[in-house]
C-alpha cells in the first residue's frame, strides 16, 4: 500500500489536468448513507424498495409516499464536507484539478470550496415548481408544512434530482465527457461503477493514469492503472499536500 500511495502522490505532482469522478462512497464519510446498499433497512419502514420510490412513475403516482421517503432518507441539511471533499477543493485551488464529476446530490463538494462540479444526478439544494418554474432552496422546501411541497401558485415543487426512469442532463453529460477525454489523470473514488450511464463515462478517458480508490473491488478494476483500497478521505488527504 505504501508503494501505491507513493505512486498516487507522484502522479498528482506531475499531472496538470486531473479530473475526479465520484460516487456515494465519497459522501458516506460525511454520514450520508448510500441508499442502494441498505435496502434491507428501508424495507421494514416502506412498502417499496428505494429504487421504486425514487422513480419518475412512482413520484407521479404516489407523491405523498415519495416525499415521505425523500424527506426522511435523502435530505441531510447538516452534513459537512469530509477530508475527501476538502482535498479535492485544495487540488482545484492548486490549479491541478479541472473538474469534479459526481453522482452525489448533496452539494458537499461546493460546500468544501470546489467550483467546477458537474452533478450527474442533480442536487437536493435546487427545487423547482413544476407549474411556474419558481426556484426553492432546500430550506424553503423543508419549511413547507405539507408533505408534498406546493408552490404559491399551487404547483408541486420537484427536487432537481434525476429520478430513476429520467434521463441525465445532456449538457452535464457532454461536459463530463469533454473533461474526462482531455484529462491527463482520472481519479475515480467511492463508486462500484455499476450505475449506468454514469459509470460508462470513464471509458472516455484516454490517458494512462486511471486511479480507482475504493474499499471494495469494482467491476472495472481490470482497466485501472492504479488501485488503492483505502477510505477515500484518508487516501486523498494523504496524497494532496
Ligand atoms: Zn409555481
TrEMBL record:
Residues 1-241 form the Deacetylase sirtuin-type domain. GO terms for cellular component: cytoplasm. Its cofactor is Zn(2+). It is found in: Cytoplasm. Keywords: Acyltransferase, Cytoplasm, Metal-binding, NAD, Transferase, Zinc. It is an enzyme of class 2 (transferase). One of its GO terms (molecular function) is zinc ion binding. Nicotinamide binds at residues 35, 105-106. Its EC number is 2.3.1.286. Binds 1 zinc ion per subunit. The active site is at 121 (proton acceptor). NAD(+) binds at residues 24, 28, 35-36, 103, 105-106, 121, 191-192, 214, 232. Belongs to the sirtuin family. Class U subfamily. NAD-dependent protein deacetylase which modulates the activities of several enzymes which are inactive in their acetylated form. This is NAD-dependent protein deacetylase. The lineage of its organism: Bacteria, Bacillati, Bacillota, Clostridia, Lachnospirales.
Amino acid at each position: 500500500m505504501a508503494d501505491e500511495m507513493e505512486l498516487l502522490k507522484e502522479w498528482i505532482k506531475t499531472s496538470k489536468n486531473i479530473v475526479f469522478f465520484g460516487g456515494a462512497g465519497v459522501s458516506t464519510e460525511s454520514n450520508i448513507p448510500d441508499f442502494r446498499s441498505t435496502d434491507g433497512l428501508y424495507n421494514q419502514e416502506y412498502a417499496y424498495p428505494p429504487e421504486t420510490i425514487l422513480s419518475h412513475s412512482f413520484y407521479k403516482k404516489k407523491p405523498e409516499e415519495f416525499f415521505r421517503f425523500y424527506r426522511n432518507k435523502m435530505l441531510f441539511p447538516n452534513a459537512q464536507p469530509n477530508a475527501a471533499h476538502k482535498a479535492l477543493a485544495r487540488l482545484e485551488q492548486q490549479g491541478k484539478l479541472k473538474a469534479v464529476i459526481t453522482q452525489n446530490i448533496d452539494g458537499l463538494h461546493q460546500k468544501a470550496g470546489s467550483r467546477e462540479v458537474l452533478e450527474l444526478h442533480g442536487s437536493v439544494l435546487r427545487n423547482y415548481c413544476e407549474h411556474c418554474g419558481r426556484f426553492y432552496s432546500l430550506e424553503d422546501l423543508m419549511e413547507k408544512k405539507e408533505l408534498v411541497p406546493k408552490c404559491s401558485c399551487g404547483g408541486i415543487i420537484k427536487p432537481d434530482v434525476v429520478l430513476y426512469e429520467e434521463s441525465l442532463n445532456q449538457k452535464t453529460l457532454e461536459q463530463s465527457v469533454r473533461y474526462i477525454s482531455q484529462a491527463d489523470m482520472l481519479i475515480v473514488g467511492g463508486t462500484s461503477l455499476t450505475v449506468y450511464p454514469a459509470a460508462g463515462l470513464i471509458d472516455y478517458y484516454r490517458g494512462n493514469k486511471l486511479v480507482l480508490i475504493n474499499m471494495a473491488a469494482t467491476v472495472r478494476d481490470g482497466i485501472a492503472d492504479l488501485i488503492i483500497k483505502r477510505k477515500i478521505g484518508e487516501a486523498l488527504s494523504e496524497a494532496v499536500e
